[in-house]
Amino acid sequence: MDNSRKKENANKKFLTLVKKLVKSKTGIVGLIIVLTVCLMAVFAPIIAPYDPNKIETANMLQPPFWISGGELSHILGTDNLGRDILSRIIYGSRISIIVGLLSVLVGGLIGVAFGLIAGYYGGIADSIIMRLVDSFLAIPTTLFCIVFLTVLNPGLFTLIFVIGITNWVMYASLVRSQTLSIREREYVKAARTMGVSNYKIITRHILPNVFSSVIVISTLSVAGTIITESSLSFLGLGIQPPAISWGIMLSEGREHLATSWWLSTFPGVAITLTVLGIIFLGEWLRDVLDPRSRGMKS
Asked: Architecture of domain 26-53+65-297 in CATH?
């Protein structure tokens, strides 16, 4: 009986979320964009019309098909090495999704753990962690990433790690503030009185109550991470060729921007649309999962 009730409650919650999504136009647009980019990343070898690194000198700097000199065989044109722009954009979505998700995962795990410790235990632990947060906030994120990537060897996993450790502070601050409030509630005090261990109190009573806020901030953080990755790759400190990212495409196209605008324009459009889609989806999640935002709007 308990299992059937849990399933019914889960189904009701899911239907409620779907109804709220249908009512939100921006939420639907964001979901469509995010799903499209994810499908592009997963099925890139099937969707992409060409090998993204295949050099064809005969097709160098071919414009999009609707411009004089363009061909339908290369819908968005080719770059200075004759590589198909559309194929490279499709494959570049993989880097954006991987870096975005894994960097947020790294930052989220570190920040949530520190936030729970600081908020629940307080005292010296709270002071040390919050001074670390203040120190990280005092350093510009981009400058921090540039310094670390200059010292270390630029690469995918290095980039994920560096971006991840710059994002943990916002999770720590958010989780700490909510934990300070939750630890004073009656059910937490009752659990302490009954001799429940601190670990169980944190994982069973506090973490589930801060999880929705973590999901919302994580979704919005992915958008910022994609922009950071593109910026660093544009500067030559992120993903390195022959790997493909939208930031690298922007960097490669800047030398030909005056005559071959499509080299940088289409990767820039891909970044903009992806970030907007994630922001729209994140705002919808905030409205659905964060009761405080609903209260402010009402």
From this structure: Orthogonal Bundle (1.10)
